[in-house]
Amino acid sequence: MLPFIEIFGKTVPMYAVMAFLGAAAMCAVSAAFARVRKNVSAEDIFYMLLYAGIGCLIGAKLLYLIISVDVYWLTDKSFTENLKYWVQLLMSGGLVFYGGLIGAFLGALRYCKHFKIPFEDSVETVIPTVPLFHAFGRIGCFCAGCCYGMEYDGIFSVTFKKSLGAPNGIPLLPVQLIEASGNFLLFVLLTLLFVRNIPRLSLSGFYLACYAAMRFTLEFFRGDIIRGKAMGISTSQWISVFVFAAGIILIVRKAKTGKISIQK
User: Considering only CA atoms, which of 92, 259, 65 is closest in space to residue 164?
Assistant: First the structure.
């Protein structure tokens, strides 16, 4: 809908603006949560998020290229020419959230291990803000026209006119905004659980299970074709299955210890 915006005379991608706002909100809220829990300093949370951000960008881009290899690997070009082309792609758009989530986890783990910061406490402080950041990102997707929904000519349908990714002039389901709304609601839920001080790792389990279920469902309503498929479902749906299982395992393990009850 609005792929670019003018800022001080410069043309800036709207996706980048929304990602920046989401990252800023994530840092601010995580720092506030750190001051509430006092298990890890707000400064360490900030630097951990920097490491996580680098890992997020690398992971999101790599998974995008992996699932798009059949589209972007040019069979009429040599191996060297393809490598040069892929370097250009690395510097351009195209990201996959699950790749970013895995990369962010590894980046955060690297920071905590190197500086001897309690990893579980750090993750539990940040995890409620992940869907907040993601919600801003999905709004950016909507502005750019990427990650668009299936053709749909009904209530709340949208028709792009200047999109660089979605088909223009065709009514579509605004699946980006639906996912953004779901992520905002998940942020509120996780925040409520956080202030109730549930045991660590349980919060991560709730996030992983809830988001994976939402993502698996919404994938059926996506209309973009570059997403990878196996046995009739997308790459992200396969990942969602394992992420959901990981979330349930974290929750069940805490339940078995008898420490899953919410403290008032």
Answer: 92
Query: 0.70 cut: is pTM over it?
Result: yes
Helix residue ranges, H only, the chain: 14-37, 42-67, 69-72, 79-90, 97-115, 119-126, 130-144, 175-195, 202-218, 235-256
CB 211 within 8 A of CB 248: no
- C-alpha 224/C-alpha 173 separation (Å) is 12
Which residue from 151, 134, 137 is spatially nearest to 207, judged by alpha carbons?
A: 134
pLDDT digits (tens, 9 = 90+) for 90-107: 555 567 889 999 999 999
Residue located via tokens 């009514």: 171
As a whole number of angstroms, the distance between CA 168 and CA 202 comes to: 43
Could you give the 3-state DSSP secondary structure of residue 183? helix
Q: Greatest CA span in the chain, whole angstroms?
A: 64
